[in-house]
Design a protein that fits this description.
Layout: H1 41-109, H2 114-120, H3 124-194, H4 199-218, H5 230-240, H6 259-269, H7 278-281, E1 286-288, E2 298-301, E3 306-312, E4 315-318, E5 327-330, E6 337-342
Antiparallel strand pairs: 1-6, 2-3, 2-6, 3-4, 4-5
Helix pairs in contact: 1-3, 2-3, 5-6
Length: 345
C-alpha cells in the first residue's frame, strides 16, 4: 500500500472553538529553531479531564448503540409474532366455522333411530350410503376438534412470547434513555470544564486541535504494507473518503459518524455487513494480535470503548470523539490496545 495522499483538512469554520485537543496533538513549537513554549498547567489539566470524559461518553454511546440494536431486533421479532398470532386466529376461526357446520348438519339429521330409518327407507342401499357419510362426518368432526385444541395451545404460547418480548422492549427503551442521558451528561460536563478556560486558552486548544487533524494526515507515512484482504482494502479506501467528517454520537454516516458507525459504514461499502457496536464487531471476524495487523483490520482500544481501521505503519483511521473529525492517528496515542479483528478470509 503506497504512501497515502494528504487528506483534506476541514475548514476553520467547521472546527468549533470548544473542541478539545486530540490525543495525537503535538506540542506547540515556535518558529523554526526555537524552543517549545512551556506547557500551561491549567490547559493540560482541563485537557486530561475532558479526554477522560470523552472516553466515558464514548463508552456510554456504544452501550446506547447496543441497546438500540437490541430494540430493533425485538421490534422485528414482536412484529413477526403478532403476524403469526393474527394468521393463527384466522385459522382458528375457520376451524370453528367448520365444526359448527358439521354439528348443525348432524343435529338436523339426528333424532331418528338408525334401525327405524333403515326400515322406513324406500331404498336401504341409499340409507346405508348416508349412514356411512354420517360416520365420516363424525370422524371429520373429531379431527377438527383436535386441530382447534392444537391451534389454541399454539396461539397461547405465541401470545405469551409476544407479551414477554414487549416487556423486554420496554426495559430496552428505558436503558436507551438512561444511556443517552449518561453520554449527554458526560459531554455537558466536558463543556462545563472547557468553559472555565479564557478566550485565549480556548483559542489555543482550537489551534492544537487543528494542528492535530492536520499533522495526523500530513506526517504519517502509511508505508507499503499489503492489506488484510480485498474487503479490508475496500473498507479502508471507503473510510478514507470520510476524512474530515465530524464525529457524532450514534451516527452511521455518510456525513457524520461515531467510531463503530464509521467501521460499519466502511465495511458496508466493501460488501460486508458488520454489526453496529464495538461489543458485537469484536465477534464479526477473527481476533489477531498487534504484530499480525494489516491495513483494513479492525483495531480495538480501551476495553471495547473504541474501534478504528488499521491503516498501516502503526496508524489508525478512525472517528475520535465528540468535537473531533475522522482522521488518521498514531496507535500510540489512542490508549490501551486490546486486539485486532480481521474481517473475511
Amino acid at each position: 500500500m503506497a504512501s497515502h495522499r494528504r487528506p483534506k483538512q476541514p475548514s476553520r469554520a467547521r472546527v468549533t472553538v470548544l473542541t478539545v485537543t486530540a490525543a495525537a496533538a503535538v506540542a506547540f513549537t515556535a518558529q523554526s529553531g526555537a524552543q517549545a513554549a512551556p506547557a500551561n498547567p491549567k490547559i493540560d489539566e482541563v485537557k486530561s479531564k475532558v479526554d477522560k470524559l470523552h472516553h466515558e461518553a464514548e463508552e456510554a454511546t456504544e452501550q446506547y448503540n447496543l441497546a438500540e440494536e437490541r430494540r430493533g431486533k425485538l421490534q422485528t421479532e414482536i412484529g413477526n409474532l403478532q403476524d403469526k398470532v393474527a394468521r393463527g386466529q384466522q385459522e382458528l376461526n375457520t376451524l370453528r366455522d367448520q365444526i359448527g357446520s358439521v354439528a348443525s348438519a348432524q343435529y338436523r339429521s339426528g333424532g331418528i333411530d338408525p334401525a327405524l330409518q333403515l326400515f322406513l327407507s324406500a331404498d336401504p342401499d341409499t340409507y346405508l350410503d348416508k349412514a356411512s357419510a354420517i360416520d365420516q362426518l363424525s370422524a371429520q368432526q373429531a379431527d377438527v376438534l383436535t386441530s382447534i385444541q392444537a391451534k389454541q395451545r399454539t396461539l397461547a404460547q405465541q401470545r405469551a412470547e409476544a407479551t414477554t418480548k414487549l416487556a423486554d422492549l420496554e426495559d430496552v427503551r428505558k436503558t436507551l434513555g438512561d444511556k443517552k442521558k449518561k453520554f449527554q451528561a458526560k459531554l455537558a460536563e466536558a463543556q462545563k470544564l472547557l468553559n472555565t478556560l479564557t478566550a485565549a486558552e480556548k483559542a489555543k486548544l482550537e489551534q492544537q486541535e487543528q494542528r492535530a487533524s492536520r499533522d495526523a494526515g500530513e506526517r504519517v507515512n502509511l508505508g507499503s504494507e499489503a492489506p488484510s484482504n480485498g474487503f479490508g482494502a475496500a473498507a479502508l479506501a471507503a473510510a478514507d473518503t470520510r476524512v474530515g467528517m465530524p464525529y457524532a454520537s450514534g451516527h452511521e454516516g455518510p456525513g457524520s459518524f461515531d467510531c463503530s458507525g464509521l467501521t460499519q459504514w466502511a465495511y458496508g461499502k466493501a460488501g460486508i455487513d458488520l454489526t453496529r457496536t464495538t461489543y458485537t464487531q469484536q465477534n464479526d471476524g477473527t481476533k489477531i494480535g498487534r504484530s499480525q495487523l494489516k491495513p483494513g483490520d479492525l483495531v480495538f482500544f480501551n476495553g471495547l470503548q473504541h474501534v478504528g481501521l488499521y491503516a498501516g505503519n502503526n496508524t489508525v483511521l478512525h472517528a475520535p470523539y465528540s468535537g473531533a473529525y475522522v482522521r488518521y492517528e498514531s496507535m500510540n496515542t489512542l490508549g490501551s490496545f486490546q486486539f485486532g479483528v480481521r474481517i473475511g478470509s
